[in-house]
Amino acid sequence: MRAQPQASHYVGGSYLESQSGTPFDSLYPATGEVIARIVSADDAIVDAAIKSAKEGQKVWAATPPAERGRILRRTAEILREKNRELSILETLDTGKPLQETLIADAASGADCLEYYGGLAATLTGEHIELGGAFAYTKREPLGICFGIGAWNYPIQIACWKAAPALVCGNAMIFKPSEVTPLSALKLAEAFSEAGLPDGVFNVLQGFGDVGAKMVAHPDIAKVSLTGSVPTGAKVAALAGEHLKKTTLELGGKSPLIIFDDADIENAISAAINANFYSTGQICSNGTRVFVHSGIKEEFLKRLAERTKTAILGDPLDEATSIGPLVSRQQLDKVMHYLKVGQNEGARLVCGGNAAKVDSFPDGYFVEPTVFADVSDDMTIAREEIFGPVLSVLDFDDETDVVDRANDTEFGLAAGVFTRDIQRAHRVIDRLQAGTCWINTYNLTPIEMPFGGYKKSGIGRENGHAAIDYYSQIKSVYVEMGGVEAAF
Ligand code: NAD
Q1: Radius of gyration of the chain from Cα atoms?
Q2: What is the pTM of this model?
């Protein structure tokens, strides 16, 4: 199976190959086969990308916002028309089942482009009356923004960064994860087909060293990273040294709290979505499932029954509900946590092993796993695993469970299940998390701001909120009278 792009990078509206960068392979996680060989960006590619982004940004900033919006919406239509082709590519690159990629990847990227395309003509400033003078504000672009992607939602992440950046009149250079380099190139093609001026959206490939070089580059005005907390700390430190504006979307260890009056089947559906969708490789996952002790055994019994019906298999078969993990490295990491969980005394309810899948002996499959009797201090309750590993912790008291839920360095997301409306809001008010759900989990419509408290991030993506992170406000004082001076 091959998915080799025309060249590794997309700069100035065309594909471009590196002459001297480090080569690396993109693998299909279900088989370990090489599907594409990419060559990371060398200095010549970096220079070309910066030069074309500078030129493109000038043209784009002078383009009326309504026209910018039309181009974004046209790009959304192209992604929708090509959804199946793009979903297959995303499945090959990530291993996520086609059942998911058909609805959650290019499709959500299209939602994002359409949303910001719609906002384009509505981004206005303020008039401020000062008596004999007035002021007005205008929203201006930052310049060239650098986006850095993670591997779990490659095209969605590229759209979540590009759409608000572009609608504000910026250019973007985007570096996908080296693990999933392919779909961002297709997004670049779609932008060009929709009429985006050359150089406004460019794709550079490479590892963290290419990322760091770009973060430090004097012509980059802003950096937006989606990645892990350790990478976030490095990017923030480097960006801080150069006083770059920064948005960080990082990891989590989010709580999902289920009270004894909850609708149990819905709560189990949410726990499944919060731990097993995308084989558990979602930053906002509710991996600490606090279940009231009064319903714990019933909850575990039904959760185990339903988890056993998951279909692990060929990711390209639409009946498959769980695909492999993205890489051998991620499989090794998850297997390590499965061992640590058992060694530290958690009770294995189901799963716990690498999964054997017919016809895919070399795939990075792991069984969806449920641990019960997990305590707050266990490693599996404290560290982000990024795999299909669900930990159930017991609780009896509302105040106590919220304190425990907040006792983490992360603060990306949180959820609560209860039929008591006052309790739901009381608990949400106290939870330290940027995105919260009541009686559902992991829905992230583009209209809703998304981002982390504490070490889970800085800034917000999505919704109107993202506009503030991709633009700067210029205040202009206008004097209508004379100017007084001391002498
Ligand atoms: P990662 O941190 O290993 O890599 C993320 C990106 O950063 C990659 O493109 C990588 O090449 C780049 N990078 C690495 N070192 C760098 C450096 N020093 N300077 C600049 N760039 C550098 O993350 P990952 O393994 O690709 O993704 C998984 C992580 O991402 C998890 O922790 C997950 O929670 C997080 N994530 C967060 C969100 C969110 O929106 N909050 C969404 C998806 C994933």
Answers
A1: 24
A2: 0.98
72-104: per-residue pLDDT in tens? 999 999 999 999 999 999 999 999 999 999 999
Say if residues 390 and 289 touch (Cβ distance below 8 Å): yes
Mutate to test the pocket of ligand 1, among 228, 229, 287 (most ligand atoms within 8 A of CB): 228
Length of the chain: 487
Structure tokens at 382: 């404290």
H-run or E-run covering 328 = helix 328-343
Q: How far is the CA of 231 from the centre of ligand 1 (A)?
A: 6
Helix intervals (H) in 362-472: 379-382, 398-406, 421-430, 465-469
Residue-wise pLDDT for 166-182, tens only, equals 999 999 999 999 999 99
Name the percent of the chain in helix, strand, coil, to the closest 5.
40, 20, 40
Residue 113 sits at the vertex; the CA angle it makes with 78 and 53, to the nearest 5 degrees, is 90
How far lies 177's CA from each of 283, 326, 353, in Å?
A: 15, 12, 27
Q: Tell me the pLDDT band of 1, cut-offs 50, 70 and 90.
A: confident
Relative to the CA of 251, which ligand 1 atom is closest? 34
H/E stretch holding 270: helix 264-276
Q: How far apart are CA 407 and CA 288, in angstroms?
A: 12
